[in-house]
Design a protein that fits this description.
heterodimer, A: 87 residues, alpha+beta, globular, B: 4-stranded antiparallel sheet
């Protein structure tokens, strides 16, 4: 199973949810769908109409920038990182 | 002992201020909590009738739009955006929803939410799930809708107090619409309202409504602060009368607050003009009140800075409570929060150090 690491600012929206998750999913969309099963509402925070990742949400699979269609291997680590933006 | 409560929305979260209702208006009397809602930008806050839950409308630049809900006066919050979507094909909009801009509760307890880009959503389950009121965005004028400086936003929602079929909404820079059939169809309500920035200053839609409110106990009487004038309607928005020439210093401003009991009385904060800096006229701060439906006006500046005050007040950043006399509060783009305990006559500074103030709601709770 892939390991997913969620950012602190996302965890704050879902009290009690852990940062690290092990999930099955062939691509980033499937990984997020699996997370949605555990944390209802989480997908809406990461994905907008399209569907596509929200503009200021970065996902990396094995350290490489990814989109929803990017394949995820069983040994991969998936980082979800908010962009450095704001004011 | 009754408690005065102010709900404040800012780009850096919501804040709640409280004090005993019989205390003075000085800054030391108010206790401030925040930032709430995890620091999300919050455009509107309301109190749900009956249960008293707080609702906050917002949108995170990272995590998208949501409506927040608190059952314990802001100590803890949940949020939801289930159904706040135009669908993966984009529906009638070219871009996804950025933020929730406005909230209102209908007489039968449904929650209405206005979003950017402009659309209306409805929740029948206290904000847990939402569905779009598609009749509005299916209006034939939709392809012509253009944003104001604040975006293409549905910023004002006024449900009729007794007729569930009727609701008014305000969209910048599109104008006022009313539904007479529960949201299935909508009709523009802009006759008599100028759009000076348009080659045709009297289009059917395209007016830049900044804020409007219904008179207490008279849902057919509406007051509107527009980009191009101050207006009154006595027929539910079918026609509007320009009140700007009745002694106001400017036709331009954003907030408008109606008295909770007197249909003749409302308050506004004129700004100097859309091309003059958009601050209080002469850099001298004042709230203006009418007690005769906009026929005459009185300027109140006591306690407010009367020189070198380059203050702006946004459309949702003034509120009144239900006290007698009425408590009025407004916040500025530079983070000052001002309060009056006497119908807006005398003013005291509560705090000067909040973020840009986008929204204020006021209430008194036992």
């Amino acid at each position: 199973m892939a390991v997913v690491l969620l950012p602190r600012s996302l965890l704050a929206l879902f009290p009690g949810v852990e940062r690290r998750h092990e999930v099955d999913g062939a691509d980033v969309a499937a990984v997020i769908a699996a997370l949605e099963g555990r944390v209802p509402g989480l997908r809406d925070r990461l994905v907008e109409d399209g569907p596509r990742l929200r503009p200021h949400i970065n996902v990396f699979v094995a350290g490489v920038p990814a989109d929803l269609r990017t394949s995820v291997g069983t040994d991969d680590t998936v980082h979800v990182i908010p962009a450095v933006s704001g004011g | 002992m009754p408690t005065s409560i102010l709900l404040v929305g800012t780009p850096k979260g919501a804040f709640i201020l409280e004090r005993a209702a019989d205390e003075g208006g000085g800054p030391d009397d108010w206790a401030i909590r925040g930032p709430l809602c995890e620091g999300w930008p919050i455009h509107d806050l309301i109190v749900e009738p009956g249960g008293g839950a707080l609702l906050a409308a917002g949108g995170s630049p990272w995590y998208g739009p949501a409506v927040w809900r608190s059952e314990d006066l802001g100590v803890s919050w949940t949020h939801s955006s289930v159904g706040l979507t135009f669908g993966d094909d984009g529906g009638t909009s070219q871009e996804p929803i950025k933020t929730v801009w406005s909230l209102a509760v209908t007489p039968d307890g449904a929650i209405l939410a206005g979003v950017e880009p402009a659309a209306l959503f409805r929740s029948e389950d206290r904000g847990a799930t939402w569905s779009q009121v598609t009749g509005l965005t299916e209006h034939e004028s939709r392809p012509t809708w253009q944003p104001g400086a604040g975006g293409l936003i549905l910023h004002t929602i006024i449900p009729h107090p007794t007729d569930l079929q009727r609701t008014w909404v305000g969209i910048s820079a599109v104008g006022v619409f009313e539904t007479l059939d529960g949201g299935a169809t909508w009709e523009p309500r802009n006759q008599g309202v100028r759009a000076d920035f348009n080659p045709d200053p009297h289009p059917i839609t395209g007016q830049c409504v900044h804020k409007f409110a219904a008179a207490a106990g008279e849902p057919e009487t509406l007051y509107q602060q527009n980009h191009c004038g101050m207006y009154r309607s006595s027929d539910g928005g079918l026609s509007w009368t320009d009140l700007t020439a009745n002694g106001l210093p400017s036709q331009f401003g954003f907030p408008l607050v109606a008295h909770p009991r007197d249909p003749d009385t409302f308050w506004i904060i004129p700004l100097n003009g859309d091309d003059r800096g958009r601050y209080v006229p002469g850099a001298s701060a004042a709230v203006w009140r009418t007690q005769d439906r906009g026929e005459t006006w009185i300027r109140f500046g006591d306690g407010l800075p009367q020189q070198d005050a380059y203050l702006s007040v946004l459309r949702e950043a003034m509120a009144r409570d239900t006290s007698e006399p009425v408590g009025i509060t407004f916040g500025t783009k530079t983070g000052q929060l001002w309060h009056s305990d006497d119908d807006g006559v005398n003013w005291q500074l509560i705090t000067r150090d909040l973020p840009e103030i986008w929204a204020v709601e006021a209430l008194v709770r036992d």
